[in-house]
Amino acid sequence: MQISQLHWQEPLAREYILQYGGSKSASYEYLNDTQPHLRKYLPTGTKYLPPGGDVKRFLDSVNFSFSTQKIVRGCHPLDFFGMVDVIDTVKGLQDRTAVVYAIKKLQEQARNPEVKSFVEYESGEAFNGEIGILIQDYYGEERGSIIEHPHMKGIYRVGKVTPTIAFESSKLAQARYNVDEEICDVNGRALNVFSFDEGLDFKSYQSIEQDEASKVIELYRKVADSGLIPQGYSFQMEYGIDKVTKQLIFYQARLFRPFVDRANYKRDDVDWDFNGTMRFNAFGITPKEGIETYLAYLEEDGINHSSDKNAVAFAYSASGKNQRGSTSLNIQPKNMEVYLPYQYQLLEHGHYRWLQKTPITLTPVVTRLEDKLNSSIHFAAEDGVKVRVWSNGIVGGISLVEK
Q1: Fewer Cβ atoms within 10 Å of its own Cβ: the N or the C terminal residue of the chain?
Q2: What is the average pLDDT across 140-162?
Q3: pTM of the predicted model as reported, rounded to 2 decimal places
Q4: SS3 letters for the chain?
């Protein structure tokens, strides 16, 4: 997706994205300048260094104190459309020396040929490795994310990451997290997605409290109404929580998918056996007859063994110490038609990168599919395994194609 292909109701938003560099700095500057009622949601201590700017003069304007930590992020106009986990974020910094090191690290990282290759792969646009730098006060590890479902407006996927205990890994103290996601209505009530009923019934218990979810959705709607987002698109908003005031803090907004009405057929209209998703865990639309693709695991071997196929369904498990688990930047499939994540938590970066850009996503169905294979899914591409996939945009299903 290129910025020239999009239409904003508020053209000024486009200019901010080009000038201030994408989902983080441009979103902050636009909301701060044009939406005074939203300033209470914006991170304090925000300073932006444009590409090629004078680092020393820039840091002279930053207020350092022992009571406030800083977070340093890289920024580029293309990160409004992607670049998820491409440039690191450096957080918990206390002094000027640490920030200088972080800025240098991010600038060098952006010039890495592997970064250039991936950004140009996913965006289709040239990337020269020059990034802006955003410094803000750091609000801690508790954070969240939200999207509006692209095939049913008024339904939201709300995620929250809560740190639990610390553990020692080598010399670094890493944090473990609880990662919760709920499908909610506009009032923050969690839907019972396990029900096969097409109606909106609700859960008796939700891991993210309704009051908190409703406030996240309210902020999301305010950002949507600000004109920041191009017309006709759902977007992802990331947020934090002030540990003292409990105020929601807006972090960034990036494009997700265009709004497209769900297909007009239901699960019962599909007349072949399949492993199905829960409601609102399908993205993208196929005919009810489904589509056939080859199956592979999203790794180098899987890509290489399926590179001659026109369409492939790639499975992936986002695991790792930080539970983001993004694929390495050299993972660049050219024929990815379906994404099959193992986990339900799609808003974490490891899955969001591919959820955003793949035509069809179904979750979590791949584990049940794997049970029917004669060998590991890691060998599916080598064995020439094919699958049949359908999605009406709300629910979907998958089955093995008999040879």
Answers
A1: C
A2: 95
A3: 0.93
A4: CCHHHCCCCCHHHHHHHHHHCHHHHHHHHHHHHHCHHHHHHCCCCCEEECCCCCHHHHHHCCCCECCECEEEEEECHHHHCCCCCCCCEEEEECCHHHHHHHHHHHHHHHCCHHHHHHHHHHHCCCCCCCCEEEEEECCCCCEEEEEECCCCCCCEEEEEEEEEEEEEECCEEEEEEEEEEEEECCCCCEECCCCCCCCCCECCCCCCCHHHHHHHHHHHHHHHHCCCCCCCEEEEEEEEECCCCCCEEEEEEEEEEECCCCCCCCHHHCCCCCEECCCCCEECECCCCCEEEEEEECCHHHHHHCCCCCCEEEEECCCCCCCCCCCCCCCCCCCEEEEEECCCCCCCHHHHHHHHHCCEEECCCHHHHHCCCCCCHHHHHHHCCEEEEEEECCCEEEEECCC
